[in-house]
Amino acid sequence: MRILIIEDEPKMSSYLRKGLTEASFTVDTAADGKDGLFLALHEEFDLIVLDVMLPELSGLEVLKRLRMTKNTPVLLLTARDTVDDKVAGFELGADDYLSKPFAYVEFLARIRSLIRRAPRATRDVLTVGDLEVDLVRRRSRRANARIDLTAQEFALLQLLAERQGEVLTRTFVTSQIWDMNFDSDTNVVDVAVKRLRAKIDNGFEKKLLHTVRGMGYVLEDRS
């Protein structure tokens, strides 16, 4: 998942970038509204963190121009916490609003909530490192070698690839792939993940399918 931070305070920008990077997001930054708007319009991001008080162009002006062509989720940051400021941001198309100072845990929770709510772009081929998942032909390849998967294995891989970088719980995976209530006594998810891992990771030095103890599974390139 790729996030753009448009923030003119170097310490704040560095702090947020470090935290989001450690949370497995890919992060780009811009220090003023003009550069931030250019990146937002010419690159693809899953979410934009936008400070209201910016040089060159204000955050609200950036948001106004962005909404003319793109619906990328936007989290506004501001030191001002008045109702009028919030209303102005929401009327221009902001998706959420966070007043400074704030706790990082709340910031991260807001980020993850917005990403979960956002419609996902439809793509024909998903890539994770050197792994390719062709959604049209229902095929997968790694390092240009074809990987043969069952229909269920491909569905599981597609789910993980579409949400790469996100830790998916067993309950969520079960509801999406098997469409049944999760039974904590069954290991159907663990068995399916083990079989998929054997096909996409075995024989490769770099592992892509990871277990997050006590939480679930995540597909990501950690290099």
Automatic annotation (TrEMBL):
InterPro entries in the cross-refs: CheY-like_superfamily, CusR-like, OmpR/PhoB-type_DNA-bd, Sig_transdc_resp-reg_receiver, WalR-like, WH-like_DNA-bd_sf
Residue ranges of coiled coil: none
Modified residues (4-aspartylphosphate): 51
OmpR/PhoB-type domain sequence ranges: 123-221
SMART domains: REC, Trans_reg_C
Domain Response regulatory: 2-115
Keywords for the protein's UniProt record, in alphabetical order: Cadmium, DNA-binding, Phosphoprotein, Transcription, Transcription regulation, Two-component regulatory system, Zinc
A Pfam family it matches: Trans_reg_C
Alphabetical list of SUPFAM superfamilies matching this protein: CheY-like
Any one GO cellular component localisation term in the record: cytosol
Binding region for DNA: 123-221
PANTHER family: REGULATOR OF RPOS (PTHR48111), TWO-COMPONENT RESPONSE REGULATOR (PTHR48111:SF76)
Protein name: Transcriptional regulator
Species this chain originates from: Caballeronia mineralivorans PML1(12)
